[in-house]
Fold:
Amino acid sequence: MNPPDWSRHVIWWQVYPLGFVGAEQAATDQPSAAHRLLDLVPWLDYVIGLGASGLALGPVFRSETHGYDTADYFGVDPRLGTLEDFDTLVAEAHRRGLRILLDGVFNHVGRSFAPFQDVLRAGPASVSAPWFDLEWPEDVLEGDEPTYRDFEGHHHLVALNHGEPAVADFVVEVMQYWLERGADGWRLDAAYAVPSAFWADVTARVRASHPDAYFVGEYIHGDYAAEVGAGGLDSATQYELWKAVWSSLNDANFFELAAALERHNALLASFAPLTFVGNHDVTRIASKLQDPALVAHAVVLLLTLGGTPSIYYGDEQGYRGVKEDRVGGDDDVRPVFPASPADLSPVGAPLLALHQDLIGLRRRHSWLHRATTEVVHLTNEVLVYRVTAAPSDTTPEGPDHLLVALNVSAQEQAVDAAGAGTILAGQAGLGDGRVVLPQQGWAVLA
Structure:
């Protein structure tokens, strides 16, 4: 794996466009596009002010409802706008130095996807029939519908047959088309449900014409490193670390997080995982944590650990939202955003400032991208770890280090901090080789 050099410095601001702009819940027959993609343009300077350097977009292609039931991979969803609107957004982002990551749903399609509609019209003789895993009745009559493999029991999501060469050709064509229109990379939705050999073939062919493209797969469980390597990807979503962060903070059990950091170190030996404390599929961190005072600790972890951080829109403002297992259960975590940053509530300003401070710290220590951690103090309620530059980032003077200390207890805690110099961020006292953390305090030290 040889990820593009620019990915070493990227910090994503992830947006779910259909929710962000307040689009209709389902596709409409409106005669003209709504041009809502342009509503994102006033937020690009906000992204820069946050300190991020990339805009990770959820689905923008024409779909039936939530964007993950794609109908047309070559057209912008009319609820969002037009190809020209997309081009404008990309041009404005690139003018500010922001990268663009697109969300590619290549495991399954919506029922209105043209090749599947051809199957329904032409029956088993359809040229598109091999694109899907179909079973027909013994005596097929006109209008009969086959049974088909779907995505995790969702009948309206028709799974593609990734053993069919035409499907791979199609995905390569889609990826190249949007990269040529200015996208910089792809998030591969439900990558875990697709054979690694398929990704390896597709990414190799796309890289031949777009060597700077970046590919991150959505993986929830399993051997992330093996999947990334076998699929020719650059990264994978680090769900294990996400779970350990909120669970450890809720349970006052830093031993769980310490174990997860060992696994995270192992992954960093081969690639930089996509790290996050929130995204479009999970309850927001401000709602997930039982004590709102610990949101800061989650942000500190996100921005001082190795990996490629992704910040979900609104998390930096303290937005709340609970994901529920029901129809429409994602709506609460995919909200409409104000028309402009000036319309944001001042309530979120302190958390925004914290993000800005810690992103600034990360920018000054860019080696954190592949840095590993060593736990130097561990109790249920107090964690101190040293984060160290990877060998590839080590200078002749030796590797760079930072020390991060977290306290989730209701009491002041003093711990050894041998070798610590100045306090770079947080609230703590430092003296006689010890760092003193106030209750529920944290600090980052040189």
Q: What stands out?
A: The chain is about 30% helix and 20% strand.
